[in-house]
Design brief:
193 residues, mainly alpha, 11 helices
Length: 193
């Protein structure tokens, strides 16, 4: 009995020590209560303010311009986000991420053809940009048309090939197959979830 109890105590200690050894890597940085209970709007306003202060010290900080654009998109300031991304792209024209973000802001501004062109440009810069594949697939799906649907499916499949954890892309892919009338593929996509 004592032997069994000591074995249990030893196993618990091993688990505890193993968990403590992994703790710094496996546990995300703890956020303050302000961060945990802030609304997404408050977080976006804070991100915009932080980017503003970085831009105030360096007007050509392309990373800060991109960050401010993303914050402004979350706040519904699409025209301002457009200007920020346009400037960020002029400073760093080879950034696939900025180009993909630019496509999204164009879509939000009601300029779908330009949005599609921007996402394709992002993919020319980096063929493995999952955001650009996903957004291009979404945009083409919403534009409709048989040719657009087939390309949308190809882009959404590419998104999932690059990152299978993109569940939004999986839902969009199912919707694209349904729109195309290929219910067998839609069911297959659902079963793969």
């Amino acid at each position: 009995m004592a032997n069994r109890a000591s074995t249990v105590v030893f196993a618990v200690l091993v688990c505890f020590v193993g968990a403590r050894a992994q703790a710094p890597d496996s546990i995300a940085k703890e956020r303050s209560h302000v961060d945990r209970f802030s609304t997404s709007e408050v977080r976006a306003e804070r991100a915009e303010a932080e980017a503003n202060s970085r831009i105030a010290s360096n007007a050509n900080d392309h990373q800060a311009l991109n960050a401010r654009a993303l914050a402004r998109l979350r706040l519904g300031k699409n025209n301002e986000a457009y200007e920020d991304l346009k400037l960020a792209l002029s400073l760093k024209p080879d950034s696939s991420d900025y180009q993909a973000n630019f496509g999204y802001v164009l879509w939000k501004l009601g300029r779908p053809e330009e949005a599609v062109t921007a996402e394709r440009a992002a993919l020319k810069l980096d063929p493995k940009n999952t955001t650009a594949h996903y957004q291009l697939g979404r945009f083409l799906l919403r534009l409709g048309g048989a040719r657009d649907l087939k390309e949308a499916i190809a882009e959404l499949r590419q998104t999932l090939d690059l990152d299978a954890r993109q569940y939004e892309a999986r839902f969009e892919l199912i919707a694209a197959y349904r729109e195309l009338g290929d219910l067998a593929q839609a069911v297959q996509g659902f079963l793969r979830m």
